[in-house]
Hints:
Elements: E1 8-9, H1 11-18, H2 22-30, E2 36-39, E3 42-46, H3 47-55, H4 60-66
Helix pairs in contact: 1-2
Amino acid sequence: MLAIVPRTLSTSEAATYIGCERKKLLRLLHAKRIKAKDLDGRLRFTMESLDKFLNGLPDALDTEREVPCQ
């Protein structure tokens, strides 16, 4: 039986993936906005957690469409 292993990224890869600096990524982790696993003393961020965070951000175009013109 094959075990499904979630795809993970290193800290620098995860920061690049969501478009922020490493410090901001670690603040998001400590605020529990994203999840990471400690594998042998190294943080590994799951793609699922990063995608969930990104999908939860407001979309600028949708926000503009919802604002009525005055």
